[in-house]
Design goal:
Bound molecules: protoporphyrin IX containing FE
Strand content: 5-15%
CATH superfamily: Cytochrome P450
CATH architecture: Orthogonal Bundle
Distance between the termini: 89 Å
CATH topology: Cytochrome p450
Number of domains: 1
Structural class: alpha+beta
Number of helices: 22
Radius of gyration: 28 Å
CATH class: Mainly Alpha
Oligomer: single chain
Mean pLDDT: 89
Number of strands: 8
Order of helices and strands: HHHHEEHHHHHHHHHHHHHHEEEEHHHEEH
Low-confidence stretches: 1-14
Strand order of the largest sheet: 1-2-6-3
């Protein structure tokens, strides 16, 4: 065949090299094609960062997404310990991310580089579909002047000074927890699940702040709709649930279920947000509105914020607290109900009595300040141990970060593994994996009252983040946890159910590892009244005092 071909060519044609080269050219072309394909399937928004280790085993197209599994925080913690790299890079599909694990490195990244890591990444499903109507929440807004304005307005609304105006709300909502626990547990005779009461508490407080509206029933339809939609949206923000954020081709699949589900949730959320704002408008018209963020803005009293910014602030506050507070407080009660936890409860009760010798005084003066050291220690430990937002909220660099000589470029996603940092034995000691409120107390001689240990870094753990985009609701969150816990612990001794006990493992307590905020597994407790007579008296007294507050219930 080759000879036949050769015989047809004119004399002098450079036939031999061409023919000899043909397979070579084909091979080169094939290699170039393969290289181009390889480049395309391993391409990332940010090229490989020199000098920063990358976890081996990234696959084409998906990168480390499959290897990360459902529980990103625990997988990254394991990689840290296995490779001895606290800071490493991974690939989430087409997105390069830097993961930070140890306590000291998390602190150094968030505080030492706070202007560089002030941004948040934009994700296709959450930003492009779910947030297309009400604007981005503060926690998901990229850093710009609008985000700065929203953050400032939220900061003012939740400052220590503003908190004074919320005493009636804290009084009423923490009272409602005990009122309904007392009723539903038949004064301790029936085991109950505590989470629904705490969910209503968390949601009502932020709804009151934002709209001056609350719901009295634990299973109110609107309340449950807000909680259900919020939780479903939280699931759609997780990387493991949403591959289309990192593998763009998936967005174009026919019958894209994620997009359809996102649109459905967006519409349901729009419906209740509009309903709430309409209620505020109606109350303003009738002169019955309560002081709240949206009424102030609707009446154009103070700000230069746009309508979308107002919705965004209200949405941020409502979604900021409705899962984090129940996640932390429910799990905390789970740990306190164990045999060991009951000893801490007794010590807390003793400390409450030290500051409020008459328990009725703990009811009238429990929401103005956080002064009982043992309770503060329990709250800190609950925040640390149950890191409800295990991978925090993602950050993005706006400028280069020089990380021990490796240059992390602008626009790189930064993931803070708060769960790993909060259980870092190098920082919290060898018992970092144990729930122990007393780690936050100074060692004292027997018989001496508990004294809080001063923290050198914010609240002392990473659960509220840190630096330029730290949790805006941190002050109010601490006060909410405190005002609920002091009343619950002064009313009851809490004992875990034998048939449905709590799961107190700091990873496994969470039933949905893929969600942005943990949802504790269900459990039940028995409430043993400390003094039924005093409980009834405190409830009656608070019922009377809070009668006039926030009548506008749905
Ligand atoms: C136990 C309760 C809470 C926990 C554990 C928690 C945790 C967090 C975390 C980890 C962040 C991201 C911080 C960072 O990137 O460094 C955050 C941001 C935020 N939180 Fe909280 N939070 C809690 C309660 C609340 C409450 C009650 C509100 C509002 C009423 C709230 C409002 C916000 C807002 C607005 C942001 C966004 C800040 C920004 O991006 O600039 N949080 N929170």
């Amino acid at each position: 065949m080759t000879e036949d071909l050769l015989s047809t060519l004119p004399f002098g044609t450079p036939t031999l090299p061409a023919l000899a080269g043909q397979p070579l050219v084909l091979a080169l072309a094939a290699a170039a094609l393969l290289f181009a394909i390889w480049k395309a399937v391993t391409h990332t928004d940010i090229p490989h960062i020199k000098g920063l280790p990358e976890i081996p085993g990234a696959l084409p197209v998906v990168g480390h997404l499959f290897a990360l599994g459902e529980d990103h925080a625990s997988t990254c913690e394991r990689w840290w310990r296995q490779h001895q790299w606290s800071v490493f890079q991974i690939r989430l599909g087409n997105t390069r991310a830097v993961v930070v694990n140890s306590f000291d490195d998390c602190r150094k990244m968030l505080v030492g580089n706070q202007s560089a890591v002030i941004d948040r990444p934009k994700l296709y499903t959450f930003h492009g579909v779910i947030s297309s109507t009400q604007g981005f929440t503060i926690g998901s807004s990229p850093w710009d002047s609008s985000c700065a304005n929203k953050r400032k307005a939220a900061g003012t609304a939740m400052s220590k000074v503003a908190m004074r105006g919320y005493h009636p709300m804290l009084d009423l909502e923490s009272y409602c927890i005990v009122r309904d626990m007392q009723k539903d547990s038949e004064a301790g005779a029936v085991e109950i699940s505590v989470r629904p009461y705490i969910q209503r508490f968390a949601l009502n407080t932020t709804l009151t702040l934002c709209y001056g509206i609350r719901m009295d029933a634990v299973y109110d339809t609107l309340l449950r709709e807000i909680l259900e939609v919020g939780s479903a949206i939280s699931l759609l923000r997780s990387a493991s649930e949403n591959y289309q954020d990192y593998i763009p081709a998936l967005r174009y699949l026919p019958n894209n279920e994620k997009t359809a589900r996102s649109k459905e949730l967006r519409d349901r959320r729009d419906a209740y947000l509009n309903l709430l704002l309409d209620k505020v408008r109606a109350m303003i018209k009738n002169g019955t509105d309560k002081p709240c963020i949206s009424a102030a803005i609707l009446k154009d009293e103070e700000t230069k914020l746009s309508g979308v910014e107002v919705s965004s602030i209200c949405l941020s506050l409502v979604s900021g607290g409705f899962e984090t507070i129940p996640g932390t407080l429910t799990s905390c009660i789970g740990s306190l109900s164990t045999p060991e936890g009951q000893i801490w409860q007794d010590r807390a009760y003793e400390d409450i009595k030290r500051y409020h010798p008459d328990i009725r005084d703990a009811w009238t003066n429990s929401f103005q300040e956080e002064k009982v050291p043992y309770l503060n220690a329990i709250i800190k430990e609950a925040g640390r141990y149950y890191t409800v937002s295990s991978m925090s909220l993602p950050r993005k660099t706006v400028s280069e970060v020089n990380w021990n000589g490796a240059i992390i470029p602008a626009k790189t996603m930064i993931l803070i593994n708060a769960q790993a940092g909060n259980h870092d034995v190098d920082h919290f000691g060898s018992h970092a994996g144990k729930f122990d409120p007393e780690r936050w107390l100074e060692p004292t001689a027997p018989g001496e009252p508990p004294v809080e240990r001063k923290s050198t870094f914010g609240v002392g753990h990473l659960s509220f983040g840190a630096g330029s985009r730290a949790c805006s609701g941190q002050n109010i969150a601490q006060r909410l946890l405190y005002s609920a816990l002091i009343r619950i612990l002064s009313s009851y001794k809490i004992v875990a159910s034998e048939s449905e006990p709590p799961n107190t493992d700091y990873v496994d307590y969470n039933q949905f590892k893929t969600a942005l905020v943990a949802i504790p597994r269900d459990f039940k407790v028995k409430l043993i009244p400390r003094d039924n007579g005093v409980n009834e008296e405190c409830l009656a007294m608070t019922e009377e005092r809070t009668k006039g507050y926030y009548k506008h219930e749905t």
